[in-house]
Amino acid sequence: MKEKGINTTRLHIQAVTLHDAGFILELVNTPGWLKFIGDRNVKTIEDAKNYILKLTTGPGTNYFLVKLTEQQLPIGVVTFMKRDYLEHHDIGYAFHPDHEGKGYAFEAAKAVLDELKKDPVHPKILATVLRNNVKSIQLLEKLGLSYDKDLMIDNKDLLLYVINTATNQ
User: Fold this and answer.
1) Measured torsion, CA atoms of residues 52, 83, 103, 118, in degrees rounded to the nearest 10
2) Confidence class of residue 3 from pLDDT cuts 50, 70 and 90?
3) pLDDT tens-place string over residues 31-76
4) Cβ(95)–Cβ(66) under 8 Å?
5) Which domains occur in the chain, in start order?
6) Among 3, 57, 45, which Cα is nearest to 20's?
7) Alpha-carbon distance 67 to 75, whole Å?
8) Are the C-beta atoms of residues 67 and 11 closer than 8 Å to each other?
9) Which residues form the N-acetyltransferase domain (predicted)?
10) What is the distance between the alpha carbons of residues 51 and 45, in angstroms, rounded to a whole number?
11) Long-range contacts of 27-32 (CB under 8 A, 24+ apart)
């Protein structure tokens, strides 16, 4: 990923930092996050800072903050991480409910995917999604990922999506 982040028409995407703890605290406690991602027990600013540290210091984890360029207002995150139960890295995203339905998730995830496709280290990029997360499934398909198989991880019924980046350059 570019050191200074990625810019799109409307968004600036950069690595999350401890300065983003207030937004992360709010985001991880939104109804959508709790329903589709799960409770991360982040209840205070200090919890949010510890959560950010855990994510940003772990090997194989990239956690990006998405901001509206003009206002420099944080609106969501895009993640790219290597999960123990997956052969390749997994892309994910979450946006504050005030900014859903405006195309930001697609714009941000596509920009990150486009950068990742340039790196031959990632011949495939995966995504996992709960079966009932219809909006996220639609977005994954719009991004060019295809259903691969069902997974049962930690008693969660997940769908695995994949994009072969080696052939999409």
Assistant:
1) 100
2) low
3) 999 999 999 999 999 999 999 999 888 788 899 999 999 999 999 9
4) yes
5) 6-167 (3.40.630.30)
6) 45
7) 6
8) yes
9) 11-167
10) 10
11) 27/76, 27/77, 27/94, 27/96, 30/94, 30/96, 30/97, 31/97, 32/94, 32/97, 32/100
Kindly state the tokens that stand for 92. Answer: 């994910």
Half-sphere exposure of 82 (CA within 13 A, CB side): 8
For tokens 């200090």, what's the residue? 46
Average pLDDT, stretch 115-140? Answer: 94
Euclidean distance between CA atoms 162 and 1, whole angstroms: 20
Measured in residues, the chain has a length of 169
Structure-block tokens of residue 19: 């300065």
Measured over the CA atoms of residue 130, residue 85, residue 150 and residue 127, the dihedral's sign is: positive
72 backbone φψ class: left, alpha, beta (φ>0; ψ -120 to 50): left
